[in-house]
Amino acid sequence: MSTSTSTSLTPHDLSILSKIADPESSPSPLLLSPSLPKDPHITTPTLYHSLTTLETTIIHPLRATELQLAGFHPTPPGSPSATQQYQTAISALTSLINEHPTYASARNNRAQALRRVYGDGVLVQQTEGQEDGERGTERLYKSTDTLELSRVSQTLLLDLKTAIHLLTPPPYSPISPTAAKTLSLAHTQRGAIYLRTAKLLSIPGSKLIFSSQEQEGEAG
Description:
The chain is mainly alpha-helical. It has one domain (2-25, 32-72, 80-219). The chain is 60% helix and 2% strand. The chain has eight helices and two strands, in the order ααβααααβαα. The chain has a two-stranded parallel sheet with strand order 1-2. Helix 3 runs antiparallel to helix 4, helix 5 runs antiparallel to helix 6 and helix 6 runs antiparallel to helix 7 (177-201). The radius of gyration is 18 Å and the shape is globular.
């Protein structure tokens, strides 16, 4: 119901939702320049190559996991569960982020991994009898621990907020195609989460995992 949505989401969230509905309301278009560093904060080519190589090593096993889940590849006996493999990747990405907090791609990928594990509806407490499909992205792990979900929600939103902040250039300033792609993915992920949140909050009895003030502080 619309009243619940408008009182639960912050003004910033509603602004994001309005921009999803009206893409033309976005700021000035991005200007691409292939000559610029692929990450505006990781300008040393050797360091950037090292980080992307490590990041690829972390997330590559997840592709095999998804193929196994889809039935395209057999799952070897004794293999860790899909949730365990994602949690391993999340832990490794967390270590990478702790060492290089301005590396936006790692934050974007950690957010994507958290979405895969907990679903796009992670910001909203699930009501009794609610179908899992209503929550958007299929979840690998169905947690009912409010503290865990609150922590995950805030980490996810902060990752996307930080990635967007790190990669957004000043108005009419150029950006590399690689940075622009990561920036676009971060916006898309956050938009998907907010859209699913708004839909779930329209269901009677639904409420945010944490307060709108906390959400504004993390995702504002």
